[in-house]
Automatic annotation (TrEMBL), chain D:
One of its GO terms (biological process) is ATP synthesis coupled electron transport. Gene3D superfamilies: 1.10.287.3510. One of its GO terms (molecular function) is oxidoreductase activity, acting on NAD(P)H. Keywords: Membrane, Transmembrane, Transmembrane helix, Transport. This is NADH-quinone oxidoreductase subunit K. It is a multi-pass membrane protein. Its main location: membrane. The chain crosses the membrane at residues 6-23, 30-53, 59-84. It comes from uncultured Poseidoniia archaeon. The keyword Plastid does not apply. The keyword Magnesium does not apply. GO terms for cellular component: NADH dehydrogenase complex. InterPro entries: NADH_UbQ_OxRdtase_chain4L/K, NUOK/Mnh_C1-like. It comes from the Archaea.
Amino acid sequence: MGETKNEYRLLLPLLPFLAIVPLLSLQSDSSPTDFAWLIVVAPFIMFPIILITGQVYNKNETWKNTWKEGGILGLAALSVSLSTTIWIVYDYLIGHADIQENTVASWLEWISFDVLQSDYTISQNRILGVDVWVDSLTLMLLFVATFLCFLICWFAIGYMTTDPINEDSNHRFFAEFVLFSLGMFGMVLADNFLWLFIFWEVMGLCSYLLIGFYYWKESAAAAAKKAFLTTRVGDVFLMIGLLILYDIYGSLDFAVVFDDPSTGIGGAVVESSQLFWALMMLFIGAVGKSAQFPLHVWLPDAMEGPTPVSALIHAATMVNAGLYLVARLMPFVDVHHHGVAGLEDFGLIVAWIGGITAFMAASIAFVQNDIKKVLAYSTMSQLAYIFTGLGSALYFLNTGDHHAGYFVLGASLFHLFNHAMAKGMLFMASGSVIHEVHHAHDHLHHGSDHGDHDFDPQDMRNMGGLASKMPVTSTAMMFGSMSIIGIPLIGGFWSKEGIIAETWAAYFHGETMMLGPALLILATAGMTGFYMSRMWFMTFAGQPKSDVIDHVHESTPWIKEPLLILTLITAIGGFALAILGVVDFLSNESQHLSLHGHSLTEQIIHELEHAFLPEDSKLRLVGWTTILLSFVIGPVMAARIHGGQLKEGQSANIFVGWLVKLSGKLGTQDVTWLAESQLAEALDKRLYFDDLYEGIISRTVIPFAEFSAWFDKNVIDGIIKQVESNSVLGSVQIRKVTTGSARDYILMATVGALCIFALLVGVNA
Amino acid sequence: MLTILTLTPLGVGLLLLILPQILPGSSADTLRKVNRSISFGVSMALFVIASYIAFENFGGIDWLNINMGEYQLMNDEPVTLISSIGVSWIVGVDALSLPMVWLTALLIPLSMLVEWDAKEGHIFHPLILVMEGALIGVFVALDLFVFYVFWEMTLIPMFFLILVWGGDDRKYASMKFFIYTFTASVVMLIGILIMYFHTGDIAGVSGSITGHHFNLLEMNSEMIQSEGLRHLVWILLLIGFATKMPSVPVHTWLPDAHVQAPTAGSMLLAGVMLKMGAYGFLRVAVSLFPESTVVFIPILLILGMSSLVYGAWVCMGQTNLKRMVAYSSVSHMGLIFLGIATMQPLGIAGALFMMFAHGIISPLLFAVAGAFKHHYHTLEIGSMRGIAHHSPYLAAHMMLGWMGSLGLPLLAGFVAEVAIMIAFWMSFGWLVILPALTLIITAVYYLNSMQKTIFESNDRHHGILPESLHGEEPRDITWHENTSMFILGILTVLFGIFPFIFFDMMSDWSTSFIQDVLLEEIINQGVKP
Amino acid sequence: MNLPLNMSEAELIIPELIMLAGLIAIILIPNFGDASFRIPLSRMKVPILIGGNRFKLTSNPKLPNRVSLAIFSTAFFFALMQTTYGKVGDTLEVTPFSRLFTLIFTAALILATIATTHRIPARANLNAPKDSDSENVATKKINALIDNRRQVDFHIILIMVGLGMSLMSMATHLFMLFVCIELASLSSYILVAFHKESKVGGEAGMKYFIVGSVASAIGIYGMSMLYLWNGDLSLDALALAWIESETVDPIAGIAVGLMLVAFGFKVGAAPFHLAAPDAYSGASSPVAGLLATASKAMGFVALMRILITVTMPESGEAFWFTTIAIIAVVTMTWGNLAALTSTNPKRILAYSSVSHAGYMLAGLAAIGSGLASEEAMKLILTAIVFHLAVLVVFKFGAFLVLSLLETEGRSHELKDLHGLARREPLIAGSMFLFMLSLAGVPPLSGFLSKFLMINGIVNVSAGTGTSDVSSVMDWVTSVEPVFWLAFAIVLNSALSMFYYLRIGLVMFFEEPENNKPMKDALSLRIAIAFCALFTVIIGIGPLSDSLLQMAADAIDSFISN
Amino acid sequence: MIDPSWISGLGVILFGIGLLGAFTRKNAIIVLMCIEVMLNAANLNFVAGASHYGDVDGWVFTAIAIAIAAAEVAIGLAILLSLYSTQETISLDEASILRN
């Protein structure tokens, strides 16, 4: 990639787009929230432009080199979204706007209608409209979404346009990418459940399109279908949830519903059983979207999509939608604020699902060799953490312990933030690895990129020792992994600790049912330490396992910058935000991110104290167990099995060099016996879930569909055909009466005459 | 205005069909082009008029405050047609029929465009024009006799479209189509006649030797004394309308007709003709017999549900693309019955919007299926793979249409679905699980069919071409097909994002419909809203 | 000396007089020649004009055709213009009813005449075969000469048919009615057998004649029994006697039953219709058309006279109600079923004609149910008359198309219709129109008439169900069975659709055997076009209105006497 | 004077014979004769009626009916001749090209 230096001038077209928001902020006195529509509309406008221009100017040199097949345009739209978001976030953080104030104001009156009420009067003019809803949750997720969309689009320009397999179809990628961004932004901003659902589905569509980006690949197309259908199952239940909610509250607007969730439409008292089912249905939707047990099967397959897609959709943004939805449900159960009591079971269910998924995904991740699959299971597992946290939060809020509830809610959302940043970065890094390995492979087997199909650039068994070849990537990957593992002081630690602790707290609180999730996620903490480390060591440490590795080198700047930015955020962002009280902010306990009047040092000490030495001795035990498991046992095990020194003469940079060396010193352990066991086999087969589902479908659904088709053709239509053929038969028979002999005709006439007499006599007698 | 809209296409179409036969000269090719241009021009002009009527009115206050019985008649004076039996020419549109009229006027030029190069084009395009007249006639006529006349008249051009330009088995299909629907509608005719017999004489239709009239606006359910007879009439009407919609178990004409029909025929069949059933049901059966409607909600529910669920299952078992799409129409039409069965303004508005949305999505589906037939000479799902390589535009339209039909948000179909679902939950609660789960099945068969046609060739640069192509080089769709599909696609998106363009009007209509027509009966029958 | 006919009476029956005069003229005119009579014992020759070498004009073989066309047209015109009505002698009465039927008959005859022009072509300037001609050419020439010779025969008989039918519609005396029917029938037997050179011609004539004669013998016998019963056969007297007798006298009942057989044969009711398909397929198309329209109308007039005028009680169910209802249902079903798989277009049309008789009989049955108010009765009768009138347009239209086919040979196979749309789009279109009209598809006139029929039946019966029931089943069980006649008609319409469409199908779908356009029979084409046009405009619009009004007036006059 | 009922009784018998003959005999000529018999049965009725009612109409009817019968025979024989000339049979059963 010789023209590296010149590439930045391509960003010049972005400038006018970047100028939009500053101009607006100067021109207008109104609140930036009024311009929130820009976030959604910018990608909306850009989507058809990219798609159509790309189709028309396909293969045009300028389009390819200057506009990066639409990538620059996409980036421009996303830059508008990002800058608007930053503007809004800034506005809120400095306290110009009040988070608590959200009024019903329809920006778009989508449909309006009337409802026949049970007292036979017709309510006038219900409106399903859409407007913007901003609170801390929105702000956090909006920032995550716009920021990552922007960065990953940036990354994709480098990643996609240099991959020969994408030749001439990148406009499709960028258009769908932008459309996805629209869905994500819209979902976060929507002020009611219906539009949340609508954008939710738009994301689903884009996920489908992007997973199936390499549509000619059977595996990709099948994965796309699987993803769409599995999430569709959840979506349908989500929709039923909406229906129930609408029936209860007569509206789907957050403002109306959350104003007083215990009172339904017309002042009716909301039954907890009724609401429970609504929430359950919504939760099933969330489970589908966030790939939780038992609707988790689609996420690993979704890695068939291009890596930027995995990074954005299947790690950082879309899969968070389920979490976002569940977090949105808090007001329903928050008895402190008019919530409906008696919904602890819902919290428990959420926590259990989270716990099960976390453990299951982590264990499957043990045996994955595909670098992206490891990350996919890791994503699943981490999302499950958050679900467990949210479950605890639901439980606490519903039982009245709102302090604990808010804390674990904030922690969960904070983990969401950390995980999104880290996982987005990890995927990009893995993309970088794959990309370069692939390039190196192509370079090595020159011009025969179709020749060697056996080589899988995603297989970690082909890697090893990359730490020296890819300094930036390995560093980024290390910090990302650390954040996910929860290495103390780094990113995810701050949030994960809170989740585990509070889940246990719920158990200690007297809820025995909470023990399960608590134990599961505790175990998962250690497992996370193992498989994330394993991935890192397999990739970057040890001897190269393939001749390709020698030719790997980092090249494209488009890939490096986003990694660097995210590494920074992952490494210190978590800590910084924790100090600024993000947990309280996210749970709406506080309005701003600030030091709360303490000095910086005080705050740091307070946070550290809170993390490592909580007052409750039981929780202290849990905390240290977690640290022990995730920090020591997991990584050390991984290092012993997969770690090792680099090849002679190679050296890594200081950020990662120590780790490689350390792993080399820990020695090796042979685990072949374990790898060949039944358990490993089962894990490799993903605990047979896919087989089970496929088996059920092929044994029930497909035969039944075929039976229906047969039934329709042979029974329902068969009756018609029978009538037809019987008529024809009758026709032939009746025509035989016309024998052609006049004698018979006279006979018939006579018989007829006799019949007439008989009738006349019979009727009149 | 509406009279022009109805009679112009009929007249011009017939003239174009007959005149060239009488006038000698001019080569076949010139004739084809001239006829085609005139037909297209006329249909475009009619579309402009229809749009003018639509946009003139749906923004205005007058339009929104329609009450049943206060139709906005475009043609004020009823003209007596056959005074002896009280037939007069009364036309009018309201929120129920206006979208349908507009839809018809829209789909006609589009379907002409799709088959721009049809063989024997000197008949083809005028025939579609005749079709337009008959279709619009059904939607605007407010005299039951005229309504019935137009109702049956639509069969004739469609019969020819299938018979002359259809597929291999067109003989059987066209006969089945004609006889099946004809049978149902003559049964309906008995119902109409019973109603007719119970009408009193009214001013303006004097001179009737029977003392009765067909004016729909002057009819009401009280005219029939016997409740049993009212129910019977309602059932007779239902048979006619349900067959047209079509609803399970009287749907089997549809797949055959669709599979054999030419693309334009399928588009019109699915886009407008099926809506005639739903329209007529609302306009005649429900409007005049609210009591029976409320009493027979279970029937509606069963019909709707079986169409929806069973139709979807049958769809899954299909291997022919067009057949599958046809069954999906059956499935979607089931939702209309369900929407009506809810007895909620929202449900009825949803049903109306379903009629409209399905009216723009299903022609797109059939245009796509037709393009497969046209360019790949086969409709067998699975006989080809990775067609997106060769026909990117076709693939894109297929994607949009398929997604629209499976009810993806921001596309028109979703609005209707969600409206019906909300109303359905209000009325029937957990029964909603059936239609909801059907949405999954819908997704399954749509995705499967897409997977097995435009995706999965396992080759970066080539698709697996069907044998029916016989080694020919595959083509993408022509510009006329592309234009037509593009317009339909844009409308699908437009009405998905801005449904209120028609939805508010429909919603207001539904409210007043419930209020004025059905509410009393709902209360009387003790149906819980 | 009293003239048997005074001037005012003569004015009333101008159309019949024209036909009578025409009959004489058409016998005489072709015989005009330069023959002269030498006055005995002198050399003076007085030209007597009969015989000898015929003049060029009178020897023109096309002349009879033109003459008869002129006669029927004038008769049609005068019948149309007629405004005065009244009795003619003791046995005839001119009413709007009879005039409408005169119109129907003459219209059918006009069409038959036009079609015959091409079916039995007359060629002027034809020479006798010479020795030099090959055998083929000679046979052709001889056949053409034979055709020329029998032009006049055909038209004489045609006019006799017209005269008989027209008089029959006026008859107020049963015996007069019978004599007129016999006149028309005997003539039509000859017409059926007219193509005696073909095998089927003679056979068709024989069957039609034998079965028809038996039927009319039965009818006459029935009439004679009626005479035995009452002693007076004028319709008024019979009706009076019928009303006076409290119960139905068995003799009278049997007499009416016997007459039903005769008239049933004429209208083609099952099971007396069996000879009809044979006759239609053996006869030439114009004649078959005549049988299917005019002859059927004649039968219905007779049926209406005997069933409505004479034996319809003031109130209550007529004694023949069940019989006619059953015959109606059997007839329509039989006709439609048999037509379903038939492959001879003429037979299909014949069976369709049978089924139409069934529909009309169903209408009569509805009247006989005794539930009909006077209004409803009028409505049904109007429907029947209207149907008979419009049948002339589309049923004869279909036969005209077949005539056109016959000009190039056969029309006995559905195959002969193959690909007609390719060869003659307009003719095929018209044929399809006729078929749809026969099937009763709106907005064609066939729909309107069938619609009125069902309407009448529903009108009679729908009010009979118990009014205070709330369930459908209760209502359905309480309604008079005559209601189901409407369903029978409707279901039969659906059944019939099948074979009507099949004719359309073969015309538009199948490949033609050859692609040549057909013979340029202009007058026939114009007639077909007219029929097609009227099929449409009588279906809906002002013309249908005025025709309906005419039918209604006719029925008014029919009821009132 | 013979009682009219005897006359009409004879008529019934004649009619029965005629009808029976019409559908049992194959020969067209015989069938034609049977038809004549049936017509004569009707004539007998007319005659009986005329004598019973003392009405002259009956006689007239008889005369006309005889005329009709004569015409029928004339036409019938002509048709049978033409049938014979093409198919060389006058058997009702054998002349059945037209059927079904």
